[in-house]
Amino acid sequence: MAETTRGSRDGTVPTAVAIRSAAVELFHRQGFEATSQRQLADAVGLQVASLYNHIKSKEQLLATIMTEVMEQLLSITERRVEAAATPEERLLAFMSEGIRFHAEHRLEALVGNTELRSLSEDNRARVVELRDRYERLLESILRECAAGGTVSVPDVKMATYAGVAICVHVASWYRENGRLPLDEVISGLLAAYAPTAALERKK
């Protein structure tokens, strides 16, 4: 049976889940370097020595968080894109899912955006590889759209960078209790991003 730790409404959550959640919160609030093993252990009610029964190191924990988040984003986005019938639908699916994911996983995304420098060379390379794969997916969709002539994309590379940036930076300003519900935020950003603006108006 998996070990549990205090931290959920019913009193316990799996220890690995509690450690990950506490790490995301601490890394976001005070930064990776400023977060001590003692603080992380205290946050989940463990002794420091016991913490290492669940993680290899603080840096490996950060790498796992960043890798898992990117893998989850890619998996969800690729499924949505593959289910779309046309390049235009694939573009809308990519952007919609990217915006939604970064809004719903704000802290993980913000940690990923700020702490890449804290990873070892090998771990950093793995995260960068996943980010590049995400970027290449959007670039390939935009090239399809441009080739079909239904979407104006004068510079595919620039449109790729802009599209990824729109998705990623949602994490820095979106709030669940903010002025607009998430579906309206998604529609508004699709209308503001040039390659999807005309497609959004046709919906």
Structure description:
With 203 residues, the chain is mostly helical. The protein has two domains: 13-55, Arc Repressor Mutant, subunit A (Orthogonal Bundle), CATH 1.10.10.60; 56-194, Tetracycline Repressor, domain 2 (Orthogonal Bundle), CATH 1.10.357. The chain has ten helices and two strands, in the order ββαααααααααα. It has a two-stranded antiparallel sheet. The longest helix is centred in the middle third of the chain and has 28 residues, at 121-148. The radius of gyration is 19 Å and the shape is elongated. Residues 13-73 form the HTH tetR-type domain. Residues 36-55 bind DNA. InterPro entries: Homeodomain-like_sf (IPR009057), HTH-type_TetR-like_transc_reg (IPR050109), HTH_TetR (IPR001647), KstR2_TetR_C (IPR041490), Tet_transcr_reg_TetR-rel_C_sf (IPR036271). This is TetR/AcrR family transcriptional regulator. Keywords: DNA-binding.
